[in-house]
Amino acid sequence: MDPVPLAEVASIVGGTVHFRAETPEERLVGSVAIHSDRLQADSLFFALQGVTDGHRFVARALGNGAIAAVVDERRLDEFPGQAVIGVKDPLAALQEMAVWWRAKLTSTTFVAVVGSNGKTLTKDALVGLLAGHRVTYGSPGSYNSQLGVALSVLQCPADVPVAVIEAAATEPGEMARLARMVDPAAVVFTNLGSRSGQSFGSREEHARELLSMAAALPDDGWLLMGEDDAGVLAEARRLVPEHKIKTASLPRLVRQRHVERSSLVRAVLPDGTEEDLLVATPSPEVLKDLELAMGAATLLGMRGADLLAAAADYTPPSTRMQMWRRPDGATVVGELANTDPLALSSALRTARSLMGAQGRTLMIIGDPLAGLTADEAEAMARCLRAENVRLVCGLADDAHGLIEAALAGSDVPVHRFPDEDRMRAFVATELRPDDVALVHVPRDTMVTDSWMHLVETAAATRLYVDLAAVRDNVAAFRKLVGPHTKLMGVVKADAYGTNPVTVAHTLREAGVDWLGVATSDEGVALRRAGVQMPILVFLAVPGDLDRLVRHRLTPSLYSMEMYDAAVRAAAGSGRRLDVHVEVDSGMHRSGLYPEAAIELLGKLRGHEHLRLAGLMSHLGCPDDPDEDDLTREQLKRFGSVCSAAAEMGFEDVVRHTAATAATIRFPEARYDMVRIGLGLYGLQPSTATSSLVTLTPGVGLVSRIVEIHDMAPGERVGYGGLFRAQSPDTRIALIAAGYYDAVPRAFRKVGYVLVNGRRCEIAGTISMDSMAIDITGHPDAEVGSDVLIFGQYAGFSVPVEEAAAAMETVSHELLTQVGPRVQRIFTQH
Asked: Greatest CA span in the chain, whole angstroms?
């Protein structure tokens, strides 16, 4: 949303204002927040009543830099002297803000995606298809509730041609409130699951509620139906004129065969064009969602070759399902519990397609399924039989007993256990090569937390990333720089060897304002994965500019060639492109010399196609106190360009030059935004920063002992025989990690690893796939024991910074060298 004065916000939400003297009413609100620790520099905090009462965190939000808080007017007495706006209902007030912002987006075509299942996949597919055709915004993740839709609309940029918003209703009357915020010109209806919501008396009533999103379509609007059930279509025709309902003359996908983890399909377009496509999913349901998205893209004006090219380039983003494969071929598929037979069949079919022609399908129910009825249990049982499930494991809960009773007399055995630990232990021993286990977990559970031990053998070497630590570090930097300085999370180089999509979503939830990447490919990959945050591309090349415009990526102009390319791309797109200008203040890596940068600012002043949104530079030595004079000289040069921009009349320019080290050591370098990369993972850039801010280490590289040798005196180990056994009780262990995995040959200089917290010396040269360690005198070390190579794990530590220093390199290099066969495991400790 565009910045709006605080006093005007109070008018929009129909509230009464209670401002502190130091909080002027003209202060601009540019974002909203519902979490007191995840604020942006211009946030208005809404105290929502949910599982947790948001009013308890008003003081914390204001202390963290929120401009003001919107609270229940009946509780104003709880906030004397605070900057608050009193309203009847804070959630309704947030929704009024969304209605206000939607009304301003008159040039944006809003498309709503509704239905029981497949909304997120269909929405993401439509956004992905359109991205190559025109700039498109999609609501983040599964933001489809009364709260989620409001946030989605408020996050929609002002200048996008198309916005695709997902919406869901669980009670009668909810869709009307969502429709006010979305005000769609078009609606895509995915399907109506076989299980109506508990709040609806019938499938027809449920369908009527969902379809009411389309009740006020404009004259040229349309409703695209993915559901062909006669009853649902009849409800659609009661609400929407027949000529607006689209069911025919649209693209079709005919699945031909399964190819590894993909599907070969035949795409048939309305004009008769046919083409084979390889789509990166084994799931028929995902293909159906893609087909529906192609239909919507066609109705939005995408045609022929463009549509086929976009569909061929489409990669389904991660869904609720998480998949891991073990070396023996067994696969564990984790999914949030859903008892709707249609959704359950989809999950089981996807799981079965992953295993090929061999192996069994196991159903593991880790959710209590509270409230499950006998009829619903019978429907689940029919689904399990139809999908050829060979074994069901559940708990002692009553609902699981209903499923067992419904399967009685069938050839599907059911094993029930008094607790999850015993069920997991049974499954771990029961899984056979080429089996697939579908694990249904509660909606507030991460699959990795409780079931990861089933799949840890999928890779002996693992990089653990603690997302809770990442959030803590974001909070630490927010506290350090204050509420008025924006945070950029740098996720280039696969987010420092972790996973950029997972980290990006975590950063968004933590209140980070921007993301930074090195290349256009990195930015496009984030957009295709549903990441909607502002993204700055540091080192795009002139030929990338058209892609950057289509995917709403902001380029850094570090040369005049980049400027010329940006002008051409923006002019061709018909929209004004935000750009950041990079100044070479003395590092001499990229950027324009100060004089050339000022000359470029002159070209940008009043430019028809480009808008100066940021000024940036890179500092060469902010981590080194011996080079502080050089750092200050760089800041002086950068400051001269900033002053020139101000004198030219540029406004709302985000100035940024500090990465992690400068953010910590040079308050004057923070300007309007700081760029945090290494610090996200709790790693210090140098010893000069470690005493200035407390960070939470969040990564650990771990492998396993795979073999143990008893050595005789004089026997030698490894290439070059550099290690020689000295005593008759020498024991050498082989670790399944080498320099291909992230343990460079130079790691020998570190000298040790930890086994069960005990220091074990490195024995000889590190190989491509393995390394040897001396476990003499360590009786607890055995085959299968975990080995901490560097980082944090299980309460033990080999500091990454110390390991890098011993190798005469930097932590950045050590992390980004983590190889592709190292399994990334994300935790929430």
From this structure: 90
